[in-house]
Amino acid sequence: MFSRILIANRGEIACRVMRTARRMGIETVAVYSDADANALHTKSADNAVRIGPAAAAESYLAIDRIIDAAKSSGAEAVHPGYGFLSENAAFAEAVAAAGLTFIGPAPDAIRAMGRKDAAKRLMADAGVPVVPGYHGDSQDAALLAAEADAIGYPVLIKARAGGGGKGMRRVDAPADFAAALASAQREAQASFGDRHCLVEKCIELPRHIEIQVFGDNHGGVVHLFERDCSLQRRHQKVIEEAPAPDMPADIRAAMGAAAVRAARAIGYSNAGTVEFIADVADGLRADRFYFMEMNTRLQVEHPVTEFITGVDLVEWQLRVAAGEPLPKSQEELEIDGWAMEARVYAEDPAKGFLPATGHLTHLALPNTDDDLRIELGVQAGEDVSPFYDPMIAKIVAHGPDRETARIRLGEALADCELAGVTTNLTFLSRLVNYEEFKRGQVDTGLIDRGLAELTRAGAVPPDVLGVAALAVLGLIEPGSGDDPWDGLRGWRMWAAAQHHALLEHNGERYDVALAAYGHAGFKVRIGATWADIQLAEGRAGPRLAFSVDGQSKSAGVVKDDRAVTVFLDGETYSFVLPDRLADADEANAGGDWIISPLPGLVRQVAAEAGVAVTVGQQLVLIEAMKMEHGLTAPRDGTVAEVLVAKGEQVEDGTVLVKLQRENESAA
Ligand code: ADP
Ligand code: ADP
Ligand code: MG
């Protein structure tokens, strides 16, 4: 076995490879770009070597620099992870030429599968079913259009060098073909430096089902069953599971055999994935699945396979690369239970899944155990930069059956807190609880069909606003990790008072009034909506426990100078604090006025011109919505003017009392 390996990657996959290496007593060398000098993977390794500036072309894609780092650090082997150089045959060759071992397949195998057109021809020859289409060499637009007519619309134009869902166009009618081809070719040229496209039948109701295969250098090839990756956005996977829902045993066997045949056809060694597309218009059928492509590397979603087989695929990669035979035979591999993975991306699902960047101010995750795994590539305080893939974590759950795994995944997602960067966490929680997904009725169109519901931005519930307001007003110490009950700062003091906070969510402003009553209860009012919240005593871990309308809940609350983020019931709500000082300055020359936050009846006036008051002292009591709201002095000072009297009806925003300006009172 190797004693030191270099990991030519970053993020969660670099960390994940290091974990297994460490367990096996293998030293690890990380490479990092300038953007990643303090990144998790850089810190997690035994050694780390800087390879260049942030741009991937000058760092994680720079073959020479990575080879130099491997040589200078004394690594014996290089693990490429996924993405970047993982499917680059020239890189695998360069590693070998440097006298090092590439932890992956041979360069020829990578090359054979590197282009989708050639791979399809090869597979068809090996007796593996492929999607009907044109996989030839010509790029003549008229010829391709004629091929499309022969295939029958709709067709899919695909970049032969494509990956990550890029360079694909669905075409529904001949009239649109020429323009779609030109645009796919342009995108292919820009993304992969190869404009060459193929045309194939577009399957209208498809499921993406792939087989994990593994080969060794002694002619052994096994498969480790299937993964269903049908939940996709922009042709990219979002949630993956293993096994595939409603998979008949004979189709599993047929797909597994086809994948092994594919791997054998190219003398495959190490981990690989054979992706199939199944036409499920009439259900899953043994004669309706087709080879789509082979990924000659470890796949992002490999943990679901590890959960159901008990195999550490990275350990197998290392063993096979070191010349050992496959640790298990086909007969020794079995499926245990069910596993699901959700990919947490820094992106905005409501804006077409636009990648997001920013400063990750807060990160808290549920505890992992034998049935919950979290693969993380970031840490709090880090920037999510625009240079690399926006995937920041994977949450993977396992259980004895699909429903148990699904519920576990949903709970884990609801317990994840990421603030400072827009993420797809809310979207993922909704997706896990989406009816079609619950029933296991998956196909690649599911997300698009449910998009409106999955990305809906409804009104913010009053309990969320109440919790956010508590944090804004500094009445709880959020995110401290301590007992939030203890964090109820000066509860007694504010109990008599009425507070209000201005919050902004998705461009919408909320004026939130809070009034305390009883023992740790408070009422929240936003316009005509209100809720009764009872804060719970005792702990809910780092979360704030409360009940609203008799329902127990716990919320994560995180505050920094600019925003408050509330995590509740699987949804993330981010509130910008409107520039409160500026607002106050405008309305109120320096915090000297006591303003009614809501329309109501003045029940009591305890202020008198010329009389000294202390901060927190109740000056006016207003009754509204059957609640009393005490308004208090914002600071120590002297009352300059009382503008209301008992029994008067006042409006939202009415100035009730003015204090003397600080400099006036000194005079
Ligand atoms: P998987 O089937 O494992 O999900 P994807 O096609 O989604 O594979 O790609 C895996 C990772 O590799 C993603 O992070 C993706 O952004 C990245 N990736 C895929 N293809 C390329 C490519 N050609 N160049 C750079 N990165 C790529
Ligand atoms: P990439 O290299 O980008 O992963 P794939 O060929 O694996 O490209 O296709 C990515 C996704 O696009 C598939 O998972 C599937 O959802 C969709 N897709 C690919 N081929 C077809 C097809 N012929 N008909 C319908 N959808 C397809
Ligand atoms: Mg693919």
Roughly what is the average pLDDT, rounded to an integer?
90
Count of distinct strands: 39
**Sheet with most strands: strand arrangement:** 14-13-10-11-12-15-22-20
CATH topology of the largest domain: D-amino Acid Aminotransferase, Chain A, domain 1
Radius of gyration (CA) equals 30 Å
Shape label: elongated
Q: In terms of per-residue confidence, which ranges show pLDDT below 50 for 5 or more consecutive residues? A: 478-485
Brief overview, please?
The chain is α+β, with helices and mostly antiparallel strands and 667 residues long. The strands form nine sheets. It has an eight-stranded antiparallel sheet with strand order 14-13-10-11-12-15-22-20. Strands 24-25-26-27-28-29-30-31 form an eight-stranded antiparallel sheet. Strands 3-2-1-4-5 form a five-stranded parallel sheet. The protein starts with a strand and ends with a helix.
Task: Describe this structure as you would to a colleague.
- The structure is a single chain.
- Helices cover 27% and strands 32% of the residues.
- It has 6 domains: 4-103, 3-Layer(aba) Sandwich (Rossmann fold), CATH 3.40.50.20; 106-130 and 204-335, ATP-grasp fold, B domain (D-amino Acid Aminotransferase, Chain A, domain 1, 2-Layer Sandwich); 132-201, Dna Ligase, domain 1, CATH 3.30.1490; 337-456, ATP-grasp fold, B domain (D-amino Acid Aminotransferase, Chain A, domain 1), CATH 3.30.470; 462-576, Glycoprotein, Type 4 Pilin; 585-659, RNA polymerase II/Efflux pump adaptor protein, barrel-sandwich hybrid domain (OB fold (Dihydrolipoamide Acetyltransferase, E2P), Beta Barrel), CATH 2.40.50.
- It is an alpha+beta fold and 667 residues long.
- The strands form 9 sheets. An 8-stranded antiparallel sheet has the order 14-13-10-11-12-15-22-20. It has an 8-stranded antiparallel sheet with strand order 24-25-26-27-28-29-30-31.
- Helix 4 (89-97) runs antiparallel to helix 5 (107-114) and helix 13 (425-432) packs across helix 15 (446-455).
- Mean pLDDT is 90; it is low at 478-485.
- Residues 131, 156, 158, 162-165, 200-203, 206, 208, 232, 235, 275, 277, 292-293, 444 line the site of one adenosine-5'-diphosphate.
